[in-house]
Design a protein that fits this description.
heterodimer, A: mainly alpha, 0% strand, B: 293 residues, two-stranded antiparallel sheet, 9 helices, 65% helix, globular
Chain lengths: 166, 293
């Protein structure tokens, strides 16, 4: 074995120096290269993992927020529908009330007008009766040539008025 | 009779022994390259990881990509539990071997060096002295084309492998894991088969002892062969007697396809070395109960 190694150029002091070189590379690379790089890779992996977790949390919160917004929209729509219905009902009620009031007022106006017309009619009739009575008295006095006293005039008036009241 | 010396003219400049650099005394060209690769790898990773940020820059991004990719591969083989402990070693081995292998393909590695001067800027790289030793000493040589380096890599791995095995299973657990009955055997059959499992354990120990050799010689063989191939292809034009201008062109054309192949081989050998190490760790740290899953 020793002969083979010598043939292939093994020289123990030089071999030991090569071992030392390899050990130096091993130790320094382990300490200053692989350690920090692996730590950095781990830190980056953790950061990405945290990012993924945060992303999922954000997505969940977004879904919750969207659900909440949808709920609020639904509630707002329901409230709006209710308010519109209430407003419509209220408007219907007010309109009915106002219509009734208007009808009532119109009836009152008609009644008043009718009453006024009746009164005016009565007044006109009374005046007509008086004028008619006076005309009848004048005609009677002229036809008869008799001066009618108050009693006659009253009687003629009443008779005339009674006939005209038809 | 076959010996390495008989094929020495085809072996890369400097032969299989990593020669000492004349101007630098004890330091071999292989140790010099290993040191350069070490400094380069450490400097780049330090630059990339000095100020780590969640949003990485280009250098940090590259290092993170490499580390993440390697970690995924290691975790897939050794499991989630052992991966954090085994990853630094396996990643170090892969990155260092890959860098060293590819460094050997840079221009000047294995071709610039010390030797007999034959022209203003040329030395004779094929000269062999009276003792049969190459007199041309390249300044740089792929670190993984030197057994000292590949064996050092395997030795460091075996040390960490041993530590991980003991830490994961304990001394007794490791012994039971190697020599004990497997497959969840119970009752009389378990005791009847114990001698067989003990014998299998002995074979397993022998294979463990030979692991450093198989790991180191496989890597050495492939990279050294690649280096030799490139040198041989580079000098093939002159060897077969082409005219000098054609021989000069052939030094570029002939090795070119093999450069692409060596890029692949460099990555492949780094992968094979690391992969086998990962499998060895997996085999040694798997609890018997886990084997049935």
């Amino acid at each position: 074995m020793e002969g083979i190694l010598q043939t292939f150029g093994l020289d123990w002091p030089k071999f030991i120096s090569q071992v030392i070189i390899v050990l130096i590379v091993y130790v320094i690379l382990s300490k200053y290269a692989f350690g920090p790089v692996l730590a950095m890779l781990e830190a980056r992996r953790r950061r990405i993992s945290e990012g993924e977790t945060n992303l999922k949390t954000i997505e969940a919160e977004l879904n919750k927020a969207e659900e909440k917004v949808q709920g609020m929209l639904n509630q707002a729509n329901a409230d709006a529908e209710r308010l519109i219905t209430e407003a419509r009902e209220s408007a219907e009620s007010v309109r009915g009330q106002k219509t009734q009031e208007a009808i009532k007022e119109a009836q009152q106006i008609i009644e008043k007008a009718r009453e006024a017309s009746r009164l005016e009619h009565e007044s006109a009739m009374n005046e007509l009766k008086r004028d008619f009575g006076r005309l009848v008295i004048d005609a009677t006095s002229k036809v008869t040539g008799k001066v009618l006293d108050d009693k006659d005039q009253k009687r003629i008036n009443e008779e005339t008025a009674g006939q005209v009241a038809l | 009779m076959f010996s390495l010396d008989t094929i020495s003219p085809l072996i890369a400049a400097g032969g299989i022994n990593a020669p000492e650099i004349p101007a630098l005394g004890w330091l071999t060209n292989s140790i010099l390259v290993a040191s350069i690769v070490t400094v380069a790898v450490l400097a780049f990773t330090r630059m990339a990881t000095r100020r780590m940020e969640l949003i990485p820059g280009p250098k940090q991004n590259l290092v993170e990509y490499v580390v993440e990719f390697l970690y995924g591969q290691v975790e897939g083989i050794v499991g989630k539990h052992v991966a954090p402990k085994a990853f630094p070693l396996l990643a170090t081995l892969f990155i260092f071997i890959l860098s060293s292998n590819w460094f050997g393909l840079l221009p000047g590695v294995g071709t610039v060096g010390f030797g007999h001067k034959v022209a203003a800027l040329s030395v004779d790289s094929s000269h062999v002295d009276a003792g049969g030793h190459h007199t041309f000493v390249p300044l740089l040589r792929p670190a993984t084309a030197d057994l000292n380096m590949t064996l050092a890599l395997a030795a460091v791995f075996m040390l960490v492998w041993f530590y991980l095995s003991i830490r994961e299973l304990g001394v007794w657990g490791t012994l039971v894991h190697i020599f004990g009955p497997k497959g969840g055997l119970q009752g009389p059959l378990k005791y009847a088969l114990m001698p067989i499992f003990f014998f299998v354990g002995l074979i397993e120990v022998v294979s463990i002892i030979f692991r450093p050799m198989s790991l180191s010689l496989r890597l050495l063989g492939n990279i050294f062969a690649g280096e030799t191939l490139l040198h041989t292809m580079g000098g093939l034009g002159a060897t077969i007697g082409l005219p000098s201008w054609l021989a000069w062109i052939s030094t570029v054309v002939f090795p070119l396809p093999f450069y692409f192949m060596e890029i692949l081989v460099g990555a492949l050998q780094a992968t094979v070395f690391s992969l086998l190490c990962a499998v060895y760790i997996k085999l040694a740290t798997t609890h018997d109960g886990e084997e049935h899953h």
